[in-house]
TrEMBL record:
Keywords of this entry: Cell inner membrane, Cell membrane, Cell shape, Cell wall biogenesis/degradation, Glycosyltransferase, Membrane, Peptidoglycan synthesis, Transferase, Transmembrane, Transmembrane helix
Region described as Disordered: 683-713
InterPro entries per the UniProt record, alphabetical: Glyco_trans_51, Lysozyme-like_dom_sf, PBP_transglycosylase, Pep_trsgly
Transmembrane domains' residue ranges: 15-36
Compositionally biased residues, Basic and acidic residues: 698-713
Source species: Pedobacter antarcticus
Protein name, UniProt field: Transglycosylase
Amino acid sequence: MQLPQINIPQKYIKAGAWVLGILAGILLVTGVIAYSKREALLKRMMASAINKADRDYGLEIKIAQAGFSGLSTVELKDISVVPKDRDTLSTVKELKIGVKLFPLIFGDVKLAEVIMHSGKVNIVLRDSLTNLDFFLKRKKKDNPDAKAKIELNEIAHDLLNQVLNKIPDDMEMKDFLFSLNDNDSAKVNLLTTTATIIDGDLLSTIKVNGDAATWHINGKLKPGKKQLDVLFFADNQKVELPYLENKLHAKLSFDTVRTEMKNAAYSGDDFKITGSWSVKNLLINHPKIAADDIVVSAARIDADMLIGKNYIALDSTSKVFLKNAVLQPYLKYTLSPDKIYEVKLHADEQDAQAVLDAFPQGLFESLDGLKVKGKVKYDLNFYLDSKNPDSLKFSSSLTPNGFKILKWGKTNLQKINETFIYTPYEYGKPMRDIVIGPSNPNFTPLGQISSNYKNALLTAEDPSFFSHKGFVEESIRKSFVINYKEKKFVRGGSTISMQLVKNVFLSRQKTLSRKAEEILIVWLIENNRLISKERMLEVYFNIIEMGKNIYGIGEASHQYFGKSPASLTIGEGIFLANIVPRPKIAMFKFNGDGSLKGYMLPYFKYMGRIMANRGLTPQDTSGYGFYNVRLREGLRQYLLPDSAKVDTTAFDNDTDAPVVMQDESKTLFDRLFGKSKKDTIAKQLNPQDTVKKSRRELRRERREQKKLEKQDE
């Protein structure tokens, strides 16, 4: 089809030509004037920048020589940056910067060329001082818009554009040294012998600490399209970061790390960045993470990051790949008006062995070599509004389908179904071997343990033990709430199943990997019915710590009351359940005559009332056996006088000596043992101090009661 012809009057064509000619003339005249004045303009801009750096940051910047080289290239020589009263931060022998003219017309500075020779950045850390302190010293100015609402999406958009605009089309860098000196205990020297960008191709060679290693950062850069693909690797060895090992006692190494940005643009009101990050043979070692090296052979995340007006999120369209296993994460952090934390994890049903094999090597020591069949899927949901932490939401489920264990790994998870040897640890050292079986005279079968003790302990520690599958979501949820409110870890959500697994199957080292392994083993045992609930409880009762070098109900009942576990009264059962969380302070709960101290009575009434309401014991207004509990006479000689002031809060997993309340300025050693190393006798205090002690311990017991109340709800 032939398009119709449009006839434009000749006068309009002439008028348009005149307008364009005038504009071109104005631009030409402006350009000529600007070109003739560019040297003076450069000096004014440099003077302004130097004054601002001195005024706002306390930086002394010197430039020996500055001028134009070509139409749009600025050449600077002998540059130095020195923070006030600090070591020199940076020096550059020669620097050439070329900008693109067309974007400059619209006020957009984009680099066309960068040439740098013989540069240095030297970061010095001395105790609490550093030559980067100037970042914190910018003077605040009165600005009527200072309190204006800052939108994160705009900040992210502008910041990314500034970074990308500073990537030149062409770059040549030679002999650029980055040096970090940290109290002379950890030093890093990275010498970029050469780095070039030619038509978007990045190539670099970096010498690490002399000739200790050679690194490369190579890739393809397309800043105009908001795309980049960069690979980080070393010659003939892993990339290692010795600074972390020297400074943080952490090892980190890898073969390659690849970072890719595919796109960055607005999606509605959200600024969306799409890309991926992958690593090969990542090795991590830190005593808080795991006892041995953790190796991730291959991992990748395809990420969609969303930055909204008031939040940052990793969208649920993102995927994490660990070998052949796939996980979809969703993370969101809302900053205003209140901080909100959201975490969702979802894994579609997939091969269980593939999931097991995807776990990093060294993460689960006892499960190495485990073979399974079937499929599993996983979902986790966590939501916390800082304004209303009590409304926290938490759920976690690992759902099996045809799951079956084919072969045990390093540890047989059914070993406790038969007689076995249990070795308790104190401060990382084994105490003694205990036979959990009939050959041990202190071993007590479940049927020979008084129901008074069984009911009291289950009520206090794990009321739903026989109905749950290893975990109580509500207990874990409440633990999150309490710990968030306290801003520290004060309560765990462990069930008896979890405590049993921790003590029998795992090392005593407190690491994140051990906790993760504990959770997985509990799931394997409970969901596959590897051990009956009755046997789990029987073993738990016979290994639980109940005092200094006292393990199991058999030893405890004879130690404290001189009787068998079958003969324990309701009061004795409640007392023994009470000492489980902190067994080493059991003796400090008795008066000199062997009776229980008065602050224990509310706990007895509370626990007894719960048990009575559940039909586990008769109602007793006198205190559920409190007044009848008596420490056996043979132990009373070791009790401290009733007037002694002992800080039982000092007893924890690493401390088992009485702490005498004395001068707060004394050292821990002095507080533990008095004025001399041989003085272990508690200081006698007046009756008023004893009252203070009772009040303090009563407050602690009331906190325990509140914990039980919440569990009972």
